[in-house]
Amino acid sequence: MIFRLTFLGTSASVPSAERNHPALLVEAGGHRILVDCGEGTQRQLLRSGAGFRRLHRLLLTHAHFDHILGIPGLFSTLRLRQSEDLLTVHGGPDTLDVVMRMLAGLWGEGGAPVPLTLEPLTPGRFFQADEFAIDCFQVRHRDTDSYGFVFETPPRRHLRAEHLTSLGVPDGPIRKQLVEGRSITLANGRKVAPEDVLGPPERGKKLVIIGDTDSTEGIAEHVRGADLLVIEATFLERDAAMARDYGHLTAAQAASLAATSNVKQLVLTHISGRYADAEILAEAVRAFPNSRIAADLDVLTI
């Protein structure tokens, strides 16, 4: 299984002609999950080719308007398209309170134009499917109840071809039973246990997505070993004092986190128009060479 990421919006709080407000679509195991929904997200879904159908979940990092003001427009479009799919919105309690008040102002108390359920986050696992799970953890960003998200597939054990051949295990569904941990009996009566043909466990894939945060303190334990880390880089080190005042990271801080946490690839987002992309990237690669800056409509897979 792979995680497919479509960057729908990569700007900081002020959008630009090239960068929309924050939003990221994650597709995995038949699930389509939107992380944040800044203004204009629905148009970005169209521009990317992803479209509106089968949006299962919306994960909100926090309630600042650049991350949530696209919700009313998206919901209105889903209503006009007569969507009957249930959309589950996950966010911190304070974040969901803002969303509920926004919806109430438009559609009345407790109202929504589409089938909707709101589920408040608490640190830990909040979603489990056969192919992957999602955990959340708290991050610090000014006065918000902000969360980061960890998408992870379970450890896998692969069949060893030489053992299958020596034991006479034929191709077909019977091999799937072994991968799933079930013993089989061959046509000749021979019993084969999973341990007879499976290799050692291999770590699953790990994707970490963090929205706005004013510190990397306490984050490393959640980020450690990630195949891909998506995180903000709103400022450069020369403006570190301003970054602290506004509750954001510098590119150097984000890259240092990746370097000390054994991350494989770093993708920087929440990009401010005050800097050239080349400046941001140069600061990041000094600490972590495998860094890149996300652009709107970029697609990555892990």
From TrEMBL:
Q: Which protein family is it in?
A: Belongs to the RNase Z family.
What is the organism field in this record?
A: Mesorhizobium plurifarium
Official protein name in the record:
Ribonuclease Z
Q: Which UniProt keywords apply?
A: Endonuclease, Hydrolase, Metal-binding, Nuclease, tRNA processing, Zinc
Alphabetical list of Gene3D superfamilies matching this protein: Ribonuclease Z/Hydroxyacylglutathione hydrolase-like
Alphabetized InterPro entries for the sequence: Metallo-B-lactamas, RibonucZ/Hydroxyglut_hydro, RNase_Z/BN
Task: State which gene encodes it.
Answer: rnz
- Annotated Zn(2+) 2 binding lies at 66-67, 212, 270
Q: Which EC number(s) are documented for this chain?
A: 3.1.26.11
- Cofactor(s) named in the record: Zn(2+)
As its record notes, the protein acts as a catalyst of:
Endonucleolytic cleavage of RNA, removing extra 3' nucleotides from tRNA precursor, generating 3' termini of tRNAs. A 3'-hydroxy group is left at the tRNA terminus and a 5'-phosphoryl group is left at the trailer molecule
Reading the lineage from the top rank, the first entry is Bacteria
Q: Which note does the record give on the cofactor?
A: Binds 2 Zn(2+) ions.
